[in-house]
Amino acid sequence: MEILGQGFTLPLEDMDITSNDMNIYAQWLFDPHVRPAAVTKDGLEQELYQIIFHQYSLLFQPRIFPPPPPAPLPPSSSPRTGYNQYIATSGSASASAHSNSFHTTTLPVTQPMNLIPVFPAGGQEYYQHHRHHHHHHQQQNANTGSSSSGSQSPPPPPHPIGPSTTAATPNPTKESISQLAHRHIELCKKTLAVLARAGRVLALSEETWMVLLKVMLGITDFLLKEPMGGDTNGSGIPNMGDELCEHLLRVLCELWLRSQIKDVAMWNMLKDCFRRWTHRPKSIEQWTLISLSLTTRTLNVLYGDEEDTSVVMLSMNGTNVKMDLAADFVDYAWYRILHLIPHPLELPAHNFTLAMLGIGQLIDCFNAVDERVVSRTAEPPSGNTILHIFGTYLFDACSTAPQAEPESQRGCAEAFASLCKIFCRPQHQRPFLRTYIERFYAALSVGLKSDACLPVILLHSTELFATDLEGVRMLVSDFIAAIKLVLPKMVITTKGFVSVDDVRLAAIKVVSTIMCLPNLFEAVELKPGWDWDMQCASDSASVLGEPEHMVTQLIRVLYTDQPDESTERPFTGLKFYILELLLMSLRTESSSYNMRYLLHLINVYVIEDVPFCKGLVGTVVKLITEKILTMQLPSDVTLVAFDVLIDFVDLYEYVKRDSKNVARELVLALSRYVDALIGAGRLVYSYPLIVQAYDCMIRWILASQWIIDDHDCYKAVIATLSKGITIFDRASDDVQIANDTHSEKKKRRDATFPPTKQLFQLPPRSTSKNTTTSSGSALLQHSTVANAGRNSSTAYKKEEVAVRMAAEYCMSQFVNQLGQFPSLAEISSRQTGVNNDLQQLKHKRWRCQSNTTTESSDQWEPRDAIRYFLLDKRIILALYDVESTHQESRNAPAVQMILRDTTGKYVWSVESQYKAPTTSRTTTPSTTFHGDVTTSASDSSVLAGTAKSNEDIPPPNRTGSNDIPPTVVAVNADALPTFDNLFAEGSNSWKQWNVVRAMAEDEKQAEDTIRESAKQKAPTQYNVEPSKANISTESARGFRLLLADLGLLLPGNHSRITPLRITETLITEIETLDMLNDRDCVSVTAYYAESGDASWLELVESPPPINPHFFQFLNCLGWPIDIARHTGFKGKLDPAICETTSYYADRSVEFLVNVPYFLHQPPEDDGVWGTTNTISKIHRQVSSDDHVCIIWIENLAHYATLAKQIKQSNSAHSKSMVYLFINPLKNSASGLYWIRILIPPIGNQATSVTASQRLNENALIFGPLVDGIVISRHALGAMIRNTAISAHQACRVVTDTYTRPYVMRKQFIEEISHRHKEKLQLSE
Fold it and tell me: What is the pTM of this model?
């Protein structure tokens, strides 16, 4: 072994011999059959191992020393002395070492390489030292005769180099020396792999473990304590310490942990040596890796799963090592490794940053315990515990942020990030110590003024103000001043490790948690000098342009009044800066995601502050409209902007209070916007925007009756809707224009559309509030919507169809409701259960079939016979005669008219009122409301018709001026021929004309004679018995009078009305049409939970004592209804299982809340629910179609687990995807609620999981609430309801199950018309 040992000291040119020696030793280590017989016979395996480890260490002696860099060595002994010291120590103290075991993979040892020896200066001293050491051991073995000692062969001496040897060796080139040095390094790496494998697979004694650890520690210290140099002087010779640093540290740490050594002296020695290596980044990275692995192992034992708790996993650069370690040693090693490095501030700048990053990873492990705890018996580590361990490092690093060097700034920023992570985690058991809170606030005040630390603080403070941290709201002004450096324009310069868009988004998220605070803490005074910080931030943001400054001044006007004179620096003074941040950022933001986020926050802020700020809605609507009209917004942002404007319709009372022109200007702007999009012609990309713009426009129009007296706006709306309705004709016109333009190459192409076809004649402005349009005008407006431009034989693109249908729907609402229907406040007085034409029709068919068997049931002529027509291919018109409501004209024709179209079902009562011709034909109709109007926004009214009859009209007064009928003069009267010129004189026609003219003159003379004689005579009284009424009150005549009055019986209009054949199928299909919703019907589920640990039984059947605020919240979602009497949307609720719930409705949606606490057991004899015997089963069936769940949770811990449990506990067909959590912040703020929105990727099918993932990636398509926002109590109900409705629609969109209600009704009406239309003669 002495001979083999000397092979490890050979020069580089003889490295093939060294490689062979290493292979031989490797075989002796791992294959007992090839070991020397004496070793096997005498049991000298441990002595063999120790000699091999000693001699392996000689390989790591550098053969070539590159020129040293100018940097001084760290304070320690010379490399040679330190290395010899550890070799000598390992050789002399190997008998007293104690250690254990470890595991990892190994690399195979390859064939030896040919190397050229080049020894550094001082090699002879190294040789003399080891030669003396070897001679001493030989004498000791000969004297004692000990087999154990005799088997320990000292390291062989290196090959001596003398002047003759050096001279004899040819001087190799620089390239060859570099290649040989690299081969030497590769051989060292293979040797390290052998040592690592020896620690894993060999049964080493404590003494051998000690030798192995000391050898590894000596090698590592000898190479790594040298300064990092590399090829600094261009010599091409690699530095062995730099090349082997990672491998040395990995093998050393693996063997150290696998040995499970607890010797204090050895650990102290490791700590002293490690501090000499901390100038190398790899050492800090290895420390982070080992600390992280031991921390994970320790936390798993205390809080985690039972699996893998006994394994420590090391992963570095693709190498994974598992070690089975005892729990007590893991705890001991974790503590010692954690304190292995010095204070991070003592490290070089780059390594300081690495150390702080490593500490941040350790803190993340501690913070993650609360989310992955399975056993609830152990209390997760509190924030105080984490600060006890790392607080000194973190606070000291934060304190140096203002004067930190540029290379150290990221380390300081990471210290702030770690602190924010700790303090943003809610403390459910123990609050933070006051000392830590004060130091944290002081550190934040300093860090927010540092350009390097500010972005990181914002990134990790998005939930800071949502925690119940004591006194945290004293930092609101500091954060707003800091955010003004990021929003609306980036003033500071971010480092490469932070994205600008991420920083701006983080700033927006921080604003979402503080924007509702000023109104809640209006009596709280801000700290002195807070406005100075704001002024500094405003000065820094002076890069804004002139338009932005004008917007700032406009916003400032809104908050000029001081709300509280008793407070010198009120908290409400921050509202100006918050609104300025939101609106100005919307103007300057370029990120699509951030703009959508800002729009949602603006929506919430307006709802929060509109009761306290006049003119707020109008200002915000104007700015959003201007942003839309720039035509530069992405489509997804524009759609969200329209959603925000639609939500503002509910604030119309505040808009009307502040300015009456807001709605008008918005509607006109949207008209111009739609005209521009249609004119551009790229409907493939713009049709969703057009549809949404139509929806927004009609909602603002129907918010009140303001547009009736605005003729210009009325005309602009009709023109815009007409463009959408005639989109099919425009497409064909465009093709013709394109063809004409192609033929005329010299002409300039006209990209505009031809003039808009005016579909509706505007009625004159009425001067009386009681005046309404006539029956014919109103119905013609209603029916002419879809008639123009229809060509059913042509296949149109889906975008054209979508635009046309949206325009038709809006026009139907426009002409149906404006000026015709009562206000929303009067809708509640409508009669219900009246005018059900289908029930009457079924009853009459049954009576006819039962009373007479010979007479056909289809031949009806009674006055109450019901007839169905299809009007303009889109309206199903039901007519039947009824008795007049006027006592004096009981026999006057009266008709009940029921209209069914895409917008809903409407009931009109039409009566003929007989009046003198001198009276005005415009009447004030009496009003009757019927429950068949299925849309709460679709009000019903009476259509009054007028007619004449000789029965009740007094004799006309022929003496008045009314005898002369009104005449007009045609503009081309001179060009009209006379009868004398029409016929040739002497012709038969001329003779007939003369005869007729003579007879007419004779009749006129006779009438004049009678009239003159009547004037001269006195009136004579005659007693004449009045004639009997020649009117059949049993025959149906009213519907014919109505159709004739409307002009639908004229030959030219006969194609507009089509009779429908009444059959059982038609009745069934009309019933189905009535069941089709004309509004979006949304049902959601609401739960109450104390924490995320609540069970399904506690959520549904036996809840804990419920907070009264939860029931108040349910009443804010809607108004309570009686299920038994309610005629609107009820979901799957039934009076047998539920008596009441919360319900909300407007013109476009019906909203219902399924609350399990309102359910009760059904009667046993109930045919539907009788077999369902538990509330849980009933609730599963009732809520199976709910896409959104609302959970009021007192403690937000483990809320993600609760969402998963709800999904798994529901029925297999449950559609729940979005979970809205409401967490009241009660410790330090009353009336504030933290909203968390969760879309877990879980489901019973792969399609549902994919849909959840799609929705989670595009969560901002619904709103206005966003995840992590904080809102106040007065806005909670409305905001949750709007978000739930929007989320419900988003869920249906991502699952491809959403169709607008009017589209479904339109398609169904078309199907009915195709199946049941019949052709009749005009007389029929």
Answer: 0.77
